[in-house]
Amino acid sequence: MNGKIALVTGSTSGIGLGIARRLAENGCCIVLSGLGDQQSSDKIVQEFESSYSVKVNFVPGDLRDPNSIRQLCEKVTELYPDGIDILLNNAGIQHVAPVDEYPVEKWDEMMAIHLTAPFYLIRHFLPYMKKKGMDMEDLT
After folding, report:
1. Strand order of the sheet with strand 29-33?
2. What angle do CA 75, 81, 87 make, to 5 degrees?
3. What's residue 38's pLDDT?
4. In this record, what's one Pfam family (predicted)?
5. What is the 8-class DSSP label of residue 101?
6. Assigned CATH class of 5-139
7. Contact (CB, 8 A) for 95 and 105
8. What's the rounded Cα separation, in Å, for the pair 128 and 36?
9. CA separation for the pair 114, 130 (Å, rounded)
10. What is the DSSP string of 37-51?
11. pLDDT tens for residues 20-32?
């Protein structure tokens, strides 16, 4: 994995941050993304740079918002014009309620983060990954 470029969504905390750390330990350059504030994000970037000796960037992204997703894609492509090697759609949220009481806004938010955002991200980055020689059988 040495030198591969990985974008991990939802990587400012929790499971996503753990995944990003593991990838960095294995030599991947990391693009962290999430809703974290700038101070917290800067601290995470500094930790990665000092602990793993890999290139690391933070690109904010609100995966509920198609414009924010577009900006995330554009910024990552600006940083890595040849594209990324690994896209890890990790971001997610949870809300529990009986169906008849479930807030429609929460449902829409969950669908945006869990389904729509990964679709847009895959759609944007997959052509670059194919061009870099990614084996499509790796996706099965």
Report:
1. 56-58, 29-33, 5-9, 86-88
2. 70
3. 85
4. adh_short
5. G
6. alpha beta
7. no
8. 27
9. 23
10. -HHHHHHHHHHHHHH
11. 999 999 999 999 9
